[in-house]
Specification:
single chain; 6-stranded mixed beta sheet; 5-stranded mixed beta sheet; zinc-finger; zinc ion binding; SWIM-type domain-containing protein; Znf_SWIM
């Protein structure tokens, strides 16, 4: 590769990293000899290539030697830098979220702690060196960190030391929280190793095992205790019944054991004698109270019998016990002891797996539990793996076996990768999902379920946008423009989620946007005004809505929609299609988090990720050498030019015009190279649409960031999640692009044109911005 090709290559890579919003400004432009920012390091490389000189830490320049010039390995490493850096940033952000959740803090506070540790002065090269081997990653085991995050996390020694220090604090904080085992007696099912499935235990009466191997000893003892309580409750009912006869005011009649009936005072004396005998010196209650006591005993006995049946799974040739907790999705499979050829007995082993409630039910109710386990959680060979059922690493599997009070949500939960309660400033707080992403996720779940021989999950509810409107007069004044009720009801009755575009004009404010109407699993039709339900949500022009996100106008409009569509209005942002009211009520009232997966997960274990990555790198490196031997040019980072709505490439725009479309300042063009004017127009367009003030900040390289005024930010300086979601919804971009510090706009005229269009509500934008890719 010639020097000119290398310069073009590094310049393209620099632009790609500069446009990446996942990398902070500090990490891009940090000035440090030991640990410079990514762009700072690339600028140094460009200077070396252009001048042929090497600059040491004291500013002295010397000509480059042959050993200091880029060879094939260096070029291959630089080419991978463009894809490696975003992965490292994503893995680091994931760890920040885990640490914040497990310590009860916000993402911003954890980020500040990380920055303070990383900013400490090093003691020479040994403190900041980068390990080029994966031995440290191989041993890394952090509960909650996925295998992909483990493979992508950074390698500098300073980062490793910072991670070790923060891990020590995280574990110390968790150790102070109340704890309990995830698997408790009620979760266990024991399988007897017997060729005779009709064997019955004399102690508990269950089939599948004999008394010496009975797992229900404690439950059988409690049933014996209940027998005494049942006898006492029965006598109490008899005493209460006799007292009721005595208090009735009727002439008593008593049948003696010899068959002779007596009445009068003699009958009363005998009845009182029986009453006192039944009462046994205890206070005499009413018949209703005695019946309730007897019923409680019967219910307790039935519950104990159910627990016995749940523990006793039947007979298996190699499975001794299966324990499953539907709250965390932990399944513990214990194999039976095995007698070896030399006569020694090898003890059974216990394996932890992550299994959905539906899968566990099918496994545990199978006639051949051993075969069901072999075909799912333990399947191997024939091109199939059981990666989907494994926890992310050893620490994750160990944490799954214990539940603690989560410092963030306050519920009992295993602090693993499955527990993802919302953390301030994180994407986990966003419950909404685009239809396309939801469909893709369902297809992956269904495919994994079919491969495991299980029933696939139900498909997600299809969303139908309804645009046609009719005008109605509102009681008390005002006009509503909403889709006809019949159209909405037809879609809901067909099992779809209707998304009607609505507008309510009141004398003092206007409500507009998109509602969501769907039928809950319980058969109740629900209407929601919130974007969390999957639509764009409803907004109001009043000041109360701008400051708090809710107002009485939204409430009036919502009840009008409920009356028109025959649906129950909801003010709960967590209620959405696919989440039943019963499930939500359980989540709200239970003190335990339900984190079990809904279907088999699609994941790959760490070693497989690393092996595939090494294979790709070797193949890529060999390809570079082969091209060099043949004298062919090596591909450099390429640019995908801007495109119009039909996907055709267009020239880079220089001006932004939308004359005749309406909106703030739409009657004049904007020079896209005039950064100040672009800033002003972005602010004006956003305020005109939302009646909310936004800040548009500029960096030193011409990039911009749309954020909110400092007065509306959180204590840690980040944007509150509702504000982030509202900004993403206004711009029509995926939620993950609206970050804790705002929405980044690269220093590119095509990006400025697209974001101006989005600020005005022109979706899809007439011009899609250019994208940089590493070829």
């Amino acid at each position: 590769m010639t020097t000119e090709q290398q310069i073009a290559f590094v310049e393209g890579l620099r632009q790609q990293i500069e446009n990446d919003p996942s990398i902070s400004e500090r990490e891009k432009y940090r000035q440090s000899w030991d640990q410079p920012g990514v762009i700072t390091r690339l600028d140094t490389e460009l200077d070396r290539l252009k001048t042929g000189m090497y600059t040491d830490r004291f500013g002295n320049k010397t000509p480059l030697t042959d050993a200091q010039k880029n060879a094939g390995n260096q070029l291959q490493a630089i080419q991978y830098l463009g894809t490696m850096v975003p992965r490292i940033q994503s893995a680091k952000a994931t760890y920040f979220e885990i640490n914040a959740r497990h310590t009860g803090r916000s993402i911003g506070e954890v980020q500040a702690e990380w920055d303070s540790i990383m900013a400490r002065q090093g003691t020479g090269r040994g403190s900041v060196g980068i390990s080029l081997k994966d031995s440290w990653r191989d041993d890394l085991a952090v509960a909650g960190l996925s295998a992909q995050g483990q493979a992508d996390i950074g390698q500098s020694k300073r980062a490793r030391d910072a991670l070790a220090e923060m891990e020590e604090r995280r574990l110390a904080h968790l150790a102070k929280q109340p704890s309990r085992p995830t698997i408790r007696p009620e979760h266990r099912r024991v399988y007897a190793q017997s060729a005779n499935p009709n064997v019955r235990c004399e102690q508990c009466g269950q089939f599948g095992h004999e008394q010496p191997a009975c797992p229900n000893g404690d439950l059988a003892a409690r049933r014996k205790e209940l027998q005494a309580e049942h006898h006492a409750a029965t006598n109490a009912l008899k005493a209460a019944s006799v007292q009721q006869v005595l208090d009735s005011g009727q002439e008593p009649v008593y049948l003696r054991r010899d068959g002779v009936e007596v009445g009068g005072d003699e009958a009363r004396r005998l009845l009182e004698q029986d009453r006192d005998s039944f009462a046994g010196g205890q206070p005499i209650t009413t018949v209703a109270e005695a019946n309730a006591r007897l019923k409680a005993v019967a219910n307790s006995d039935a519950e104990l019998q159910q627990q016995m049946a749940a523990r006793t799974g039947g007979v298996s040739s190699w499975v001794q016990e299966v324990a499953y907790n539907e709250e965390s999705g932990l399944m513990m499979v214990t194999t039976a002891p095995r007698t070896r050829k030399d006569g020694q007995v090898s003890p059974g082993k216990t394996y932890p797996y992550r299994v959905s409630k539906e899968e566990a039910a099918q496994i545990l109710t199978s006639d051949e539990v051993g075969r069901a386990i072999s075909n799912t959680v333990m399947r191997r060979g024939n091109g199939k793996t059981n990666d989907a059922y494994h926890w992310e690493n050893a620490a994750d599997a160990q944490a799954a076996q214990e539940q603690r009070k989560c410092p963030t949500c306050g519920r009992w939960a295993s602090m693993t990768s499955s527990h993802a309660c919302p953390v301030p400033g994180s994407a986990a707080a966003d419950n909404s999902m685009a239809d396309r992403a939801q469909q893709t996720h369902w297809r992956a779940q269904a495919r994994a379920a079919r491969e495991a021989g299980l029933e696939p999950p139900a498909p997600p509810m299809q969303r139908v946008h309804l645009m046609s409107q009719r005008q109605f007069k509102l009681p008390g004044g005002g006009i509503a423009n909403v889709p006809p009720p019949r159209d909405v009801r037809d879609q809901v009755a067909a099992g779809r989620a209707a998304a009607p575009s609505v507008s309510f004009r009141y004398p003092e404010a206007t409500v507009s946007g998109q509602a969501t109407v769907w039928r809950d699993e319980s058969g109740v039709d629900v209407v929601s005004p919130f974007p969390q339900a999957g639509g764009n949500g409803m907004r109001c022009t009043c000041g109360k809505f701008s400051s708090g996100g809710r107002c009485e106008h939204i409430g009036k409009a919502l009840h009008s929609l409920g009356d028109a569509y025959g649906a129950a209005p909801t003010g709960d942002t967590a209620l959405r299609p696919g989440v039943s009211m019963a499930e939500l009520r359980r989540e709200r009232t239970s003190d335990t988090a339900y984190d079990a997966p809904r279907a088999p997960l699609e994941r790959m274990n760490y070693s497989r990720i690393q092996n595939l990555r090494a294979q790709r790198q070797d193949t890529h490196k060999e390809g570079l050498f082969e091209k060099q031997r043949r004298g062919e040019p090596i591909n450099t980072p390429s640019v995908k030019p801007p495109k119009n709505t039909e996907g055709q490439a267009v020239a880079w725009p220089t001006t932004f015009e939308r004359e005749g479309k309406g909106g703030a300042n739409s009657d004049r063009p904007t020079d896209l190279n005039d950064v100040a004017d672009v800033q002003y127009r972005l602010r004006a367009a956003l305020f005109a649409r939302t009646r909310t003030h936004y800040s548009v900040l500029r960096d030193k390289d011409g990039g911009m960031r749309i954020t909110i005024p400092k007065a509306r930010r959180g204590k840690d300086g980040t944007i509150p999640f509702p504000e982030r979601a509202r900004l993403a919804d206004t711009l029509g971009i995926p939620a993950h692009l609206s970050r804790a510090n705002g929405v980044y706009i690269p220093a590119d005229t095509s990006w400025r044109h697209e974001m101006l269009s989005r600020a005005y509500g022109d979706t899809p934008p007439p011009i899609r911005a250019a994208r940089y890719t590493v070829a």
